[in-house]
TrEMBL record, chain A:
InterPro entries per record: Aromatic_CoA_ox/epox (IPR052703), Ferritin-like (IPR012347), Ferritin-like_SF (IPR009078), PaaA_PaaC (IPR007814), PaaC (IPR011882)
One GO BP annotation of this record: phenylacetate catabolic process
GO annotations of cellular component type: cytosol
Top-level taxon of the source organism: Bacteria
The protein's name in its UniProt record: Phenylacetate-CoA oxygenase
Listed NCBIfam families: PA_CoA_Oxy3 (TIGR02158)
Pfam families found in the cross-reference section: PaaA_PaaC
From TrEMBL, chain B:
Top-level division of the source organism's lineage: Bacteria
A GO cellular component entry from the record: cytosol
Name used for this protein in its record: ATPase AAA
Alphabetical list of Gene3D superfamilies matching this protein: 1.20.1260.10
Membrane-traversing stretches: none
Lineage summary: Bacteria, Bacillati, Bacillota, Bacilli, Bacillales
Gene Ontology BP annotations: phenylacetate catabolic process
GO MF annotations in UniProt: phenylacetyl-CoA 1,2-epoxidase activity
Alphabetized InterPro entries for the sequence: Aromatic_CoA_ox/epox, Ferritin-like, Ferritin-like_SF, PaaA, PaaA_PaaC
UniProt source species: Sporosarcina globispora (Bacillus globisporus)
């Protein structure tokens, strides 16, 4: 089952950078899909509930593909990678673990739709840029997964961009709420952009392009969108206010999320479910 | 054209007669066709309740979506609950068309839900405290839904019949998804086995109630005669409950599970399953939104609806 499927021998020098990259990709999608699943039944209208849950499902599927690449490299089975690792071992960006808003997903949830739109739109755009780069990764299994994931991202991006522009253009309360959400997202967006301490190695081994190239590409792609809705965003606005998830720094929100998402798994991790 | 003029000249009774002739001949009624007021109101009540039940039905399972114990199960239950929301959407669209001549919209449906005027299905008022419940809902609740919905696949109202066709096709996958969860638990550890048996015990009465009372004498009112007359459905509530027993009792027993009704047996002479009646007073209470989880789930939806008010307002400005 865990027979290695990589088509090129993994150089011991490449492996740390490769696994580090894969953990980031898998953990980012996994935790954001989890946050998306908490929104179920609570979206602004029923049509959006259907669309958003479809996107979250795709995103969870992407996480599963990245965890599978880690399993193939001997990191452990996909379900223990997804459910059993503690917060300090997780490499997702802090922004993606933050709660959807006040309340619990089963009672008195007062989730923030502006935050959902901005977080998802900005992240999906960064993910798209990352995956476009990964299509040319020298690690062939990753390049193949990137190709598959990319096909779905077109729709995710279109979806969130449409919401973003529409709510920004609505003015009034919507605009105020959206601007607050933008400030909140940008304050931790550097944490999404960064590829962590091994970023240089990743680029040197041809796994992905350099971090700064991807960052500039994101800024360049967003620029006309920001201009069209009369919003000033500069590179200096991107920060890592709540910690660097790529080195295992996380918030209490992640601890709570992990307890919930592994509740049944932890009844008996060895059992077949 | 001449036929249309002729139709306009008909008395209400003649129109009714022609309508009944059409549906008895197996013809489909479409949204813009003439229909008796009673037919329209029956459909609105039935379809908006069905639609809103699909949507409220996402809530008991919602608890288990983030908690599903493996990536495969997480993906499976996410897909399943998404389908349910999609069914809700599809059905509400059908109901909206029927409500249009009355000047009513989706907003009225939501407000009627919150005020308790629009009921949702009894099963979705129940608790789902373990992963076993998540499996059981897919397996037996969706299994029961397939039986009631199949009964309406040839409904005289075309838009509803077409929506049901698609819904039933997807429900079959849901029942398989639920059955797979239950099988894994039934074949698993003692603790996992106990989880399934607990879920069966907990859901049994609600599953009996699922099909509704046998006749109006039980709860004071029953729409089944009207829906049969208008060829929306063919079988009675009791017929459907018997079909459910025939299909699922052997399956439940084959997994080594016990039925929480020791009187349950198949009577060869009557060719009927004999069983203990659920407490129909409890049923009446549940659908009045006094079930164990009624208020909590309505509250969750109401809070979300209020919290997102600014979004709907922004969309109205933009349009």
């Amino acid at each position: 089952m865990t027979e290695p499927v990589s088509k090129m021998p993994i150089d011991a020098k490449v492996k740390p950078a490769l696994t580090s990259l894969l953990y980031q990709l898998a953990d980012d999608d996994f935790i954001l899909a989890y946050r998306g699943s908490e929104w179920l039944g609570l979206a602004p209208h029923i049509e959006e509930d259907v669309a958003f849950s479809s996107i979250s499902q795709d995103t969870m599927g992407h996480a599963a593909m990245f965890y599978q690449l880690l399993e193939d490299l001997g990191e452990g089975n996909v379900d223990s990678l997804a459910h059993a690792r503690k917060a300090a071992e997780r490499r997702n960006a802090v922004l993606l673990e933050v709660v959807n808003g006040p309340g619990h997903y089963l009672s008195s949830a007062q989730y923030d739709w502006a935050f959902a739109v901005v977080r998802n739109y900005f992240y999906i755009q960064a993910k798209k840029i990352r995956l476009d780069s990964l299509k040319n990764s020298l690690y062939q299994p990753l390049a193949e997964v990137a190709l598959k994931v990319n096909m779905e991202l077109y729709y995710h991006l279109l979806h969130w961009k449409t919401w973003f522009i529409q709510l920004m253009q609505a003015g009034g309360e919507a605009r105020t709420r959206m601007e607050a959400a933008i400030r909140k997202v940008l304050a931790d967006f550097e944490g999404v952009i960064t590829l962590g301490p091994l970023a240089k190695d990743m680029a040197e081994h041809g796994l992905i392009e350099p971090e700064d190239v991807l960052k500039q590409r994101w800024l360049l792609t967003m620029k006309p969108v920001f201009e069209s809705i009369n919003l000033a965003v500069s590179e200096a606005d991107l920060a890592m206010k709540n910690g660097n998830g790529r080195i295992g720094e996380h918030t209490a929100d992640l601890d709570a999320a992990l307890t919930t998402l592994s509740e049944v798994y932890n009844i008996n991790p060895a059992a077949s479910w | 054209m001449s036929e249309a003029l002729f139709f306009q000249e008909m008395t209400e009774e003649q129109k009714y007669e022609q309508f009944m002739k059409r549906i008895n001949a197996g013809e489909k009624i479409e949204a813009d066709d003439w229909m008796p007021e009673d037919y329209r109101m029956t459909l609105i009540k039935l379809i908006s309740m069905h639609g809103i039940s699909e949507i409220m039905g996402a809530l008991p399972e919602k608890e288990w979506v983030p908690k599903a114990p493996s990536l495969k199960r997480k993906l499976g239950i996410m897909a399943k609950v998404q389908d349910e929301m999609g069914h809700g959407q599809l059905l509400l669209r059908v109901a909206e068309d029927l409500m249009k001549p009355l000047g009513k919209t989706r907003e009225d449906i939501m407000q009627d839900l919150f005020s308790g005027r629009l009921k949702f299905h009894n099963v979705f008022h129940m608790e789902a405290p373990t992963w076993g419940d998540a499996g059981l809902i897919g397996w037996l609740v969706d299994g029961a839904a397939i039986i009631t919905q199949t009964n309406m696949l040839n409904a005289s109202y075309g838009p509803y019949a077409r929506a049901l066709k698609r819904i039933c096709a997807e429900e079959v996958f849901h029942a398989q998804h639920g059955e797979a969860i239950i099988m894994a638990l039934a074949e698993g550890t003692e603790e996992q086995n106990a989880m399934v048996q607990d879920a069966v015990n907990r859901w049994w009465e609600a599953l009996l109630m699922f099909f509704g009372p046998g006749d109006a004498s039980t709860t004071g009112t029953s729409k089944q005669d009207t829906t049969i007359k208008y060829r929306i459905r063919t079988k009675t509530n009791e017929d459907l409950r018997q079909d459910f027993f025939t299909k699922y009792i052997p399956r439940v027993l084959s997994l080594g599970l016990k039925l929480p009704d020791e009187t349950m047996h198949f009577d060869q002479d009557q060719e009927l399953w004999v069983y203990r009646q659920p407490d129909w007073n409890k049923f009446k209470d549940i659908i009045k939104n006094n079930g164990p989880k009624s208020q909590e789930r309505l509250g969750l939806r109401r809070t979300a609806y209020e919290t997102n008010k600014w979004v709907r307002e922004a969309l109205n400005t933009a349009n």
